[in-house]
Automatic annotation (TrEMBL):
GO terms for molecular function: phosphotransferase activity, for other substituted phosphate groups. Gene3D superfamilies: 1.20.120.1760. The lineage of its organism: Bacteria, Bacillati, Actinomycetota, Actinomycetes, Pseudonocardiales. This is Membrane protein. One of its GO terms (biological process) is phospholipid biosynthetic process. GO terms for cellular component: membrane. Belongs to the CDP-alcohol phosphatidyltransferase class-I family. InterPro entries: CDP-OH_P_trans, CDP-OH_PTrfase_TM_dom, CDP_ALCOHOL_P_TRANSF_CS. Keywords: Membrane, Transferase, Transmembrane, Transmembrane helix. The keyword Hydrolase does not apply. The keyword Transmembrane helix applies. The chain crosses the membrane at residues 21-52, 72-104, 201-221.
Length: 224
């Protein structure tokens, strides 16, 4: 039974990989992706497959749930954003694909709760997809606003790296609504910046993100 369900997960991931290729083909037809962008997209799809498969095995997850499949679809869209950014595409296609990915971000959580399939793997998967999207969008926006915008995409990875040196940063954090709101705002603001929003809006968003990380650091320092 476990083998059969594991094959089901492999089939689900294979369909996602095929969808990634189809998306790349559609973006090529619409925006003229070059070979470097294709290479980036295929490498992203391979890395996504490997990392998700490894995480699912460690979590003992033999089949992806409905919410995980929504997140997987969103991950494929993030791969599309990545290829567009690597290709140096215009703002319109980047904003369009990223907007769809952000809309799906509001779907997987409710789906998980309604179907009773909330899991640590699903939450982590959702978080990692969000992090990659922010990193890619911040790199794109940094092209005209300046390298400081990269801080939006790099802060989370810097936090993880710091946690390897400072164990107390790996402590359990309470659920804070403000942290969720600030995190959600980052993607919206970056897409708005792609569409032409002024730099000060991005700066305010970054300040809120720094404040949110600071709140978490203070809490963990006091609870160490």
């Amino acid at each position: 039974m476990t083998t059969t369900v594991s094959r089901q997960r492999a089939s689900q991931q294979a369909c996602a990989a095929a969808a990634q290729v189809v998306l790349l083909a559609l973006l090529t037809a619409a925006a003229g992706l070059g070979p470097v962008a294709w290479a980036a997209g295929l490498l992203y799809a391979a890395a996504l497959w490997a990392l998700l498969d490894t995480a699912a095995r460690r979590a003992g997850t033999a089949s992806l749930g409905p919410a995980d499949l929504v997140t997987l679809a969103r991950a494929a869209l993030v791969g599309g954003v990545l290829t567009l950014v690597v290709d140096g595409a215009g703002a319109a296609p980047v904003a369009a694909v990223a907007s769809v990915a952000l809309l799906l971000d509001a779907v997987d959580g409710p789906v998980a709760r309604r179907t009773g399939t909330v899991s640590a793997l699903g939450a982590r998967f959702d978080m990692e997809v969000d992090a990659v999207l922010l990193l890619v969008l911040s790199a794109y926006v940094a092209g005209w606003l300046g390298p400081w915008v990269l801080a939006i995409g790099l802060l989370r990875y810097a936090w993880v790296a710091a946690g390897r040196v400072l164990p107390w940063l790996r402590g359990e954090l309470p659920v804070r609504r403000s942290a969720k709101v600030v995190a959600a705002v980052q993607g919206i603001v970056l897409v708005a910046a792609v569409a032409g929003a002024p730099g000060w809006v991005v700066a305010v968003s970054l300040a809120l993100l720094v404040w949110s990380f600071g709140q978490s650091a203070v809490f963990l320092w006091r609870a160490r």
